[in-house]
Amino acid sequence: MSPTNSREKYGEPPKAVDLSHHLSEVSKARSLSPLKGYQKYFNRPGMIMLAGGLPDPAYFPIANLSADTLVQDSFDLSAPPALPQPSSSPFSWLWNLFSSSSQVPRPTERTAHISIPKYPPGANPAPRPPPGSPIALAQALQYGAATGIPQLSAFLREFTEKVFQPAYSDWETLVHVGNTDGWSRAVQTLCNPHEFILAEEFTYPSALASAHPFDVRAAAVKIDGQGMRSDDLRSVLEGWDEEARGGKRPHVMYTVPVGQNPTGATMGAKRKKEIYDICVEFDVIIVEDDPYYFLQEGAYVPKDRRSSGAVGGQKEEDEEAFLARLAPSFIKFDYQGRVIRLDSFSKTIAPGSRLGWFTCSPLFAERLERQGETSTQGPCGFSQALVAQLLTQQWGYKGFIRWLRGLGAQYTFRRDYMVDLLHEHFDMQPTTTVSSGAYGWGGEVYVARAKAKALPKGRGGNGFEKSQIGEKQDGNGKGKILFSLIPPTSGMFVWLNINFEAHPSFKSTSSAQDPPAQTLEEKFWLALAEAGLLVAAGLLFSAERDADGSPSSGSDANVGHLRMSFSFGEHEIMKKGIIILEKVLREFFEE
Amino acid sequence: MSPTNSREKYGEPPKAVDLSHHLSEVSKARSLSPLKGYQKYFNRPGMIMLAGGLPDPAYFPIANLSADTLVQDSFDLSAPPALPQPSSSPFSWLWNLFSSSSQVPRPTERTAHISIPKYPPGANPAPRPPPGSPIALAQALQYGAATGIPQLSAFLREFTEKVFQPAYSDWETLVHVGNTDGWSRAVQTLCNPHEFILAEEFTYPSALASAHPFDVRAAAVKIDGQGMRSDDLRSVLEGWDEEARGGKRPHVMYTVPVGQNPTGATMGAKRKKEIYDICVEFDVIIVEDDPYYFLQEGAYVPKDRRSSGAVGGQKEEDEEAFLARLAPSFIKFDYQGRVIRLDSFSKTIAPGSRLGWFTCSPLFAERLERQGETSTQGPCGFSQALVAQLLTQQWGYKGFIRWLRGLGAQYTFRRDYMVDLLHEHFDMQPTTTVSSGAYGWGGEVYVARAKAKALPKGRGGNGFEKSQIGEKQDGNGKGKILFSLIPPTSGMFVWLNINFEAHPSFKSTSSAQDPPAQTLEEKFWLALAEAGLLVAAGLLFSAERDADGSPSSGSDANVGHLRMSFSFGEHEIMKKGIIILEKVLREFFEE
User: Fold this and answer.
1) Considering the entire predicted model, what is its pTM?
2) Which domains does chain B have, with CATH numbers?
3) Reduced 3-state DSSP string for B243-312
4) Which of residues 108-137 of B touch A (CB under 8 A)?
5) Per-residue pLDDT tens for B505-519?
6) E-strand spans in A393-465?
7) Contact predicate B298/B307, CB 8 Å
């Protein structure tokens, strides 16, 4: 056997290999439909169908569904001339309700109109109409296969093929109701009780919460500026001690490789290839949870060195050139069918669409479909009809890519705005020096100190004097390092590594026999909350969990993190948030 | 302790009792959110929220969602003057596409218009706006609680209180994505592996398929014309032999008490009370799957004795009088909080709405909500927004009741039409005599024989002569009984008990050491399919299952059933179906 690892090597990509030994007992116990053998009768034209329990669509009270949808180029690809003001922010309606000066006009949105009748002219009345048939509410709102409506399925298949380019031939796509459902189904399809899954050392808590009740725990793999580290993955797998760990070596990996949650890291092609090859070697299934794929923002460039212009790529470039600039998916390297990829419309259309899809081998797709039949069934018909109509009739493939580019540019502006604010309010110095366990990240690292404070005018001097904290300088003439930061390269979040080692009440780990009732991280989070800023405490994302599912304080109780989101709300809100952060950090470290 | 069993007995209904010992290990292992203790900060006005990963609603491409919705009195409550013709059938678009004479105009639907903007004037921008706030897509399409949007929750609570009248005070409602999801969550919340659940001896196969992979099997309870029999329930529970059964006595019941699937039976108040009291005695949790509640059709009256007029109740009666005529829900007797009721919009709005709700105690509601957070999350926002807008702004409570009455009348016409067709094509005689194991039903039973056949004109005689099968008369001058039937009193299905004992190749059970490769039921189903009629084979609904989840042939392989749906399609289609049934039954029994 000489497996090929990319479609370039051979003309014909290989088929998925048999990985059925990865199925859980629960998944194996799912029955085939007893009607499978009689499928031929269901597809025979002219059959009188009195078998199913379908309501007549005449009784659906929705005669026609329509929507005003934003045009595909609603968001510009170049940097805006100035930071958006409240008057130009699309969220000002919310702001206005809280403010007294609500004279600000709502922004105008450029829209087109889509309409989906119950019985559109030319609709094909077959239970599974061909993908080119007009979308009919009579069908989309009916009971249907867990595979969703054909018009949407066909688009997702085309999109996946063009954008993610799976490296084997018989891959399939299958709709789900969002990546939380997708992962929840995947873990139940793959994992038996008392098993471990591999995960980034900080990861999405809801993913752990989906696995934990089935007694499936995470084994942490160290991360750096590209997300999961391949060297540590090998070391975890090679050095797995079944007895010490209390379970078998993991055969399933959960990873968020783009816009890693919470760190915002993006895993490049080389790292992905390394990790994939290790997973082949150790026979690990990769579940790639990739909701932020199109929110790739690239490296952060400080404001003074940033050139204005195309943030979301060259305006003139075509879809292929744009897609080539994005980090590839794991499935581009997947010549065996050992990746279950999860895509979601939550970040590209809306979370409430509750719509996404798997890309995986026929074996896994079939088992995941069986599971869907006995839980969610197909996704919501309103959502499928609207999204399919928008994607296939209004935007098309090219239009959707344009929309995604616009979104990516918007998130890039937002990322830049928040990291710029940190630069404005802290003394941020780039460094690649890893100074302690708290900074175990590869790539460029910024360290942040308090800035010299401007005094109110009229207090004399040159208008600046050293702040209290600035006065406590070390031998190099610099203040304490308050936190370090690798600016995110994708996604929605900034992840700060707070330098609690520099805190007056820091206790070295070795001497801390009794873990403190409240960690410094928790105290700091509460201080921020009391001052009016809510962030996500780093401990929430810890892959290591206690028996009750709560995050383990671990051995490093003095190290702490926080996650701040730049995805939502006014720029003014972010600014207020960073001002609170600055104030509370100063005060906290002066304790 | 002197529990009260109805709200009439005492002024104040009691609170739910502690039934936490029923929670499964998986359910108990679901963690509380680690943020629970800090909830106060999330609700504090003016907080700067950078914690969550919410996309800005400015990026939702739907600026406005609207629909033409049928008016609440779209369907008449009285019998139509004549059977609907193809020209007046709302589904004729489908028929037309297959027929060459597509001159038939599509029926006109009376509609109103609803519209849900992203940012409606007067919307409250809080993450959980008060129920009276206009529905905003900016909120409905956002990530939200697994409890759904407040406007919908408030309506469901009001509706449940008025219609189902729970007998304890602290009941809650919680949205789910349809009863398949609801039951799937309930079984995982209540059952550990190797357990049994109580179920009607014929039941919904998908419910069994949701439980089976977790090694949860059904213990069959006998049914009659009112569904599950209370005497047999007691006998199953009292006589439970742990060793012989291979598992503990069941502590969970799955039941479809109205429009029982597949039999169409409706369980009345007296039976429900008996069953509830037995469940209190044996500490059983009742999961009441009730999607057909508003398709209550009442007793079938043969056409010649049927008075035309109000099928769906008196036109003039008010909501309360209408509701009082319906069989009550189990929760009307539930003074302890041991019922988990499942309601669905699949039959009252559309299956594609993927929307329904639990009514249960706070203990179960909390665990079911946790499970939703790590699987489906909240239901689809498009669906929630549309259904809530329709129910709260367009129809209102009274309007929705009127819509439901119209639907009930439509299903009654359809039920009557199909049972009338059986009368036209078979010699149907009412009898209460239970003649064999196949007819173990209470209530009125019809037995069906072949009718004397009309000869083509010109073949002499009086135009009628005895059919071949008619000639094989028994001593009483009557032909073989082909099937028996209790006409359904609710729901979508007619359930025929085929009298295979009368079949030439019938073998008595005791002599059938080797079960036949193909049962008579299967042979008969195939004969119908070959002749162009698809029905659901009775064996699919058998509660007893083999280890692989397939229906057990059981000890009674000669007895068979079939389920025919009258919910869907043209009356002409039903007629063609019954003609095929008649022909194949004749031929099959002449073998």
Assistant:
1) 0.90
2) 70-112 (no CATH), 410-589 (3.90.1150)
3) HHHCCCCCCEEEECCECCCCCCCECCHHHHHHHHHHHHHCCCEEEEECCCCCCECCCCCCHHHCCCCECC
4) 109, 111, 119, 123-125
5) 776 554 445 555 578
6) 426-431, 445-450, 453-454, 464-465
7) no
